[in-house]
Protein 1
Amino acid sequence: MRKTFNFQLFTETGNSNNNVRTYQQQFAGLLSAVYGYESYFNDFLPLQTLDGVKNSAIAFTVKNCNTAVTMGAYDKGANVAFGTGTGSTSRFGQRVEIKYTDVDVPYNWEWACHEGIDRHTVNAEFDQVVAERLDDEAQAKVALFNAKQSAYISKNAGKTIAATAASLDSLTDKELIAIFDQLSTYFTNIKVKKNLRKIAKVHPVIFNAIINSGLATTSKGSAVNIDANSILRFKGFEIQELPEDAFQTGEYIYASVAGVGVAYTGIVTARAIESEDFDGTALQGAGKAGEYITKDNLKAVAKVTLTKGA
């Protein structure tokens, strides 16, 4: 079940009465737009962008229930709820109390930027420079999010499939199908609902092996396009090619259900403030960020390692 996230927003900090123009809302909107376009893992971990900080450590709280569902049978025994069992037994079996616990989700890391716009040297219109730099900073943050999220997925994947290949640069059809057969079997066995999107983020080596394989053919109903070097699905997974640096060393596939978790960033500040050190304005930004997947949902995240076999 998808969890409801109750986010806590930060408040804007003081600025010592300096002439300040704040850009929290603009930066939040820009960051979300850039993230949706550039992010490698936006469908695994949709980004929640917050402006301000109220709590220095906790991003939000989720309510979690660990109470197991009872699967007993109705007991019709003569001395159950009747006879000698009157008032001390129940034909429904033992009653289990349902309780929820609050789980605080922390920020895992922080980001910042500090740049200056000197009137004597900038050689451009101020507001345009601010807009362009906010865009550049947003894209830089998305690159940072990609790296952090790749590491998070790698560390927390609920399943690791260790595959071998005679050559890492030229997988055979047999080796390729063995990898995806294991992925398909795993997601079936953990009972992922059939209406949910299963996505496989793949290394270029894997992607090209799929495109070049004799398995992805129109005769088998595959929507492969050699001219465009594209394929939509393979063995039940949406296939998305990512660059090599999107994966941790030795890892070639990250597979998951769409929306399995959430990525989040709290923007403490995004401002332009008159500087005392030069004739111009300091462009400053700072925030906190993190990733979160519930313990139960971690089962729906798998990674494939690939090493050269004998």
Note: The chain has a mean pLDDT of 82.
Protein 2
Amino acid sequence: MLVAELERAVLRGEEAAGTSLILQELRHAIRAAGQPVDRVGDAERLFFAPLEPFLIEDAADHKRSGRIARVSLESIWAWLGRDLMPAEAKALSEDINRALYNDDRVKADQLTRALHDRAVMRIRETVTAVTGDDKARRRLAVQVGTPRALDDLATVAAVLANRDALAELTRRLPSQIRVLEREHVDIIMAWADMAASKKAPGTAAANNADLLLCGLTLVMGRLAAPWQLVRIATLAAETDDTARIAETPWAAAVTIALSEIEALVRELRVEHKAHRPITALLKAIHDAVRGVRTEMDLSVDSPWSRQLVHIRTEVSNLLRAEIESAPGHVRRLLRPRPVKEIAAGSLLDAIDVSDTEMLVEFVAACRNYASELAVSEATMRSFNELQHYLETGTKVLLDGMRHAGDADRPFRQSQIDAAIRFCRIVFGADYAGLLAKAAEIAIQAATAERKAARA
């Protein structure tokens, strides 16, 4: 209700200070909630509405085939109204806003389509004019104001030029596709043939390629597992041979799928650097890599096989150092210490123990995905080291607990508690329970010995 009222105020020309910021935050909250909300909107929102399935909540400089960062739209809209077609954009935007204020949705849609058509024509003319002129291309990129300006303009023009065909594909497909089957591929291929046949004779091949790229990107947004987009290419080409697939228009499906896997790797790098849990991302990357390798024969050298090797190498380089560091972290915490090295009443640092526990969980999780992520050797070596050290080291810790005095007992108890947490991950809950019971027995034995000594 608040969004609708603020949008109506903007349409009336009564925008107050801070309205844009408030609307921005409210719209973000609506998108995050994932629930449909009736919106009044404005000319800008209606103009970019066909782009909604192609928008990503990502940095504007990240390359994603067939996608565009939502944060880039504001700069593109400003460029349209300032540099590309100021008079037309201003007049049509005012007419669209007036129609929306009067709740005349039909007229607003008609005016928006007219704005789309003019914008597509002018964008393509502008991009064509700077083709081959690096200085002009750089100047245009600065005017647009996004890190990937020319790519962003190409995506906007492609989607708007094919808005009707893409709307038809949206109607033909389920809203969510858990597993991409042959029947879905047949629908997509029939749609592509229909859309191509409706284009004017002599239409440039690049325009048909844009249509297919947009259509495949739209399909991917409905897939539960985006990597399954590759299946369209193999079923359409009726082969898993990469050379033969690459000769078909459906090769774009492979390009898009690999681009999405690269985006997952970028996200993995960010989350890993921020020390946030990455198990779900590891699983997503593992499943995607395995799926692509299953659908296509990548045993022979090809650009796609090299791209996948690069992806796996990047993940391996990112994870290997941390995987190999886990045994050292555990040894440092659980190392048996002589009494003179233990301050009276001290304990292991709780944050250090939690960080190490997360690291052990990370190594254990990597075991499930090691083969596809090219970290099998490092993961197995580190996990075996953890197993061996915990099996032998806990016995020493228990012996130390049996002979602990009042000063060092709290520290040795904290070491055993940490060991129990690590063992629960490596060996399971039963083993950890037995270790906890053994620790209780050791404490009881130490107490009995002290009582006997006093007696």
Note: The chain has four domains: 1-36, 42-161, 174-292, 301-454.
